[in-house]
Predict the structure.
Amino acid sequence: MLKIENLTKQFGGLTAVRDVSVTFEKGKINAIIGPNGAGKTTFFNLISGMHQPTSGRIIFKGVDVTRMRADQVARLGVARTFQTTHLFDNATVFDNLIVGHRLRTKSGFWDVVFNTKRLREEEKACRKKAEEVLEFVGLNHAAYRLAGDISQEERKRVAFALALATEPDLVLLDEPAGGVNPEETVGLAELIKKMVRHGLTVCLIEHKMDMIMGMADKIMVLDHGEKIAEGTPAEIQRNPVVIEAYLGSEHAAA
Amino acid sequence: MKYLQGKAGWAILIALALLFPLVAGNNYQLYVMSLAFIFAISTAGLNLITGYTGQLNLGHAGFMAIGAYTVGILTVTYEWPFWGAFAMSGVVAGVIGFFVGVVSLRLKEHFFAIFTLCVGFIIYLIIEKWDSVTGGTVGIIGIPGPAPIGPITFDSAISQYYLVVFFLVVSLWLMHRIVNSLLGRTFIAIRNSDDLAQALGINLMRNKTLSFVLSTFYAGIAGGLYAGYVRFLGPDLAGTHYTFDMITYLLVGGIGTLMGPVAGSLLVAWVTQSLQFLQDYRMVVFGPLLVLLVIFFPHGIVGFYYKKRMEREMKKRAAEASRAQAVKKEAGTNA
């Protein structure tokens, strides 16, 4: 699904991601963990095309996407969420979601001027998609509430819904459970598993270890931009290098 | 306030604009109103790029001047008929807008604002210094008014007023189409968050450029109307204070709302007129008024109206939902 070879990103003198190679398999939940500032979000920014890597290659579904712009990568089927969800707070949740399917439509300015059949059909398709993804993330009841009035957990679900509206194959989730309580975290984890059951590949960054250990098929650990470990949750928990990175060397010996 | 929505709302507002000459006491009031409408068209353009797409363009007046000078130069120097020159006013502004946009839209936020401020000033300087084409500081005088179309002439103040109203309605109708379509949603998504829009597969550069070109086209058309209405032009029209005037209209009327530019330009025009007797001191009154407005109506007049409407709707929905729940509960106990 996604193959990354020797990926490096430098910001001036700072190397945020250094020589990372990893493969994410189709239909799996892949997690990226690491201390703050380890380069996790930068790694996502590189995959999704927000930043251009300094060197290395990113291959998605057999296509080299290394130098592509973010919108091109999205069109190929990579969706992502952000740590903070920017919604248009003065509009309803439903209104916020309609634009999510825009990348699968073609209507331009002249369609708008002449109100063409294509535009009307595509607007209908976008609304249908919005309804579909709202249903999927379980937010039907909140469709006509203002985006500014919903809870943090509901915002996370809206962010998922937006990502799903783009009809992706791979979803990158940046701290999907950040700022929500433990009960709600369980609900979001369920939702992520549901996404995988529906054929999506998920890659997530998360600090909540119990969530990660319970659901990830594979974990990659980043520290100072370097991949220090990779494996199943059980392997990662036993890995002394990981324990050292998180807790310091004196704990690793114990 | 329900009657201000939908088709009925359009009909009422258009009727009000059409009936205004009947209540206007003299031609001067028509003049003030026509100019306010012309600036409303230009401000509608600024609203598209700034209010809906989130890119603060501080060179907007420059594009209005480009449209105005297109008409002035083509009619006076090259003796084009008015309507041919007028058609070119939007096109020329749009084409120049395209090239400026392709370069300036690479910058974000305040960098973009500062860059466009400079672009506006460069346009002003070019108009002022390029004597042989633009007439320099003297400007262009003797611009012909709009030529008759069939039996309709535009000699009287009323007919010119109606001409301006016609273009205002067409401009707003098109703007309504744009902002309520998928295209408008795309622009709004960019305003909300560049990064999110990009992650949703929206080509930032292409959409921003389209929005910018459309906004400069509006400015150009407004400039063309201005040239045919005022009949003389000076480089002053490209001055940054006109841009800031238009930003004031946006703030007063409601940035990112369809009718905001109209409400803002009308209100500011009439307040300014009614404070005329204070002469130089009028800013002492106008300034605090503006501050109060920004404090108590941060979304402008139209924005305030929308917000109230939204709140009422939400309340109604909540009431309906709780009623539905009560009915369900009752059904449950009966069973």
